[in-house]
Design brief:
By secondary structure, the chain is α/β, with parallel strands linked by helices. It folds into two domains: 3-111 and 209-244, D-Maltodextrin-Binding Protein, domain 2 (3-Layer(aba) Sandwich), CATH 3.40.190; 115-203, Periplasmic binding protein-like II (D-Maltodextrin-Binding Protein, domain 2, 3-Layer(aba) Sandwich). It is 33% helix and 23% strand. The strands form four sheets. It has a five-stranded mixed beta sheet, sandwiched between helices. Strands 5, 6, 7 and 13 form a four-stranded antiparallel beta sheet that branches. Helix 3 crosses helix 8 (220-235). It is elongated.
């Protein structure tokens, strides 16, 4: 699965190989293109059923615009830089976080961040419950590791989120700090080891953020059309249904 590694690999990368397209050009071509990780469920996966929530959201947005979806599968920095996608999914809605990607953010449609995950019997639902006596699985060299280190929390370092979640389920770690997407999907796949998931943003605001769609230098009509599509999909429950199929809930943005 290797969710976080691949997700960060693809985060906010757009090349400048071709000019951005306007809404009129997209409608004229009949196609909206989206960059999607090729093998990273629950985000997306080529030739998979289910295909991943990013594929389903991108398809729903394309339909709202009255066009079809063109999937551009990317698996490396180089491919993502060369891709000429119109759309990126699940983008952190902080302009400074986008660096030199030139992404324009849509309106935010849910809240995400780093989730604290633990077994139900441990009742670790907030950072205040962690101490030097708890063993928390974190990723090597992550912001989370820095935050917990400043709080003198006991930690165990891992490379991948699926390994961290399995360590909690097996009792080799008291808790883990992972993305809500990977935690929710783990619970779906392992109902016998269902874990508690919470976003401790009040205790560590730098570990939570809003999520939006990323557009490659859209014109004003395209930006407005994308925002209208988001409003529709949120209002009719489509967004919640899509993410819910992968074990996720969508807290409202702040």
């Amino acid at each position: 699965m290797r969710v976080v590694l691949a997700a960060l690999l693809l985060c906010g990368l757009f090349g400048e190989a071709a000019p951005a397209r306007t809404l009129e050009q997209i409608k004229s071509s009949g196609v909206l293109s989206a960059c999607l990780p090729a093998n990273v469920l629950p985000y997306s996966r080529r030739d998979s059923n289910p295909p991943g929530f990013q594929v389903e959201v991108a398809d729903a947005v394309a339909k709202a615009l009255g066009v079809s979806l063109e999937k551009q599968w990317v698996i490396s920095h180089l491919q993502a830089l060369r891709a000429n996608c119109d759309l990126r999914l699940d983008v952190i809605a902080i302009p400074e976080a986008q660096g030199d990607t030139h992404l324009v953010l849509s309106k935010s449609y849910y809240r995400s961040g780093v989730a604290l995950v633990s077994r139900p019997d441990r009742k670790l639902v907030d950072l205040a419950a962690l101490s030097e006596h708890t063993k928390v699985a974190v990723q090597v060299s992550s912001v989370t590791a820095m935050v917990l280190g400043e709080r003198h929390v006991g930690m165990s370092m891992y490379a991948f989120e699926d390994e961290m979640l399995q360590a909690v389920a097996d009792g080799n770690a008291d808790a883990a700090m992972v993305t809500p997407a990977s935690a929710g999907y783990f619970n779906m796949q392992h109902p016998e080891h269902k874990l508690n998931i919470s976003l401790p943003e009040d205790a560590a605001p730098q570990m939570s953020w809003n999520i939006a769609l990323g557009l490659r230098r859209p014109d004003k009509p395209l930006r407005e059309a994308i925002d209208q599509a988001i409003d529709k999909l949120v209002a009719d429950g489509s967004m919640s249904s899509i993410y819910g199929r992968y074990g996720m809930t969508l807290p409202p943005p702040k």
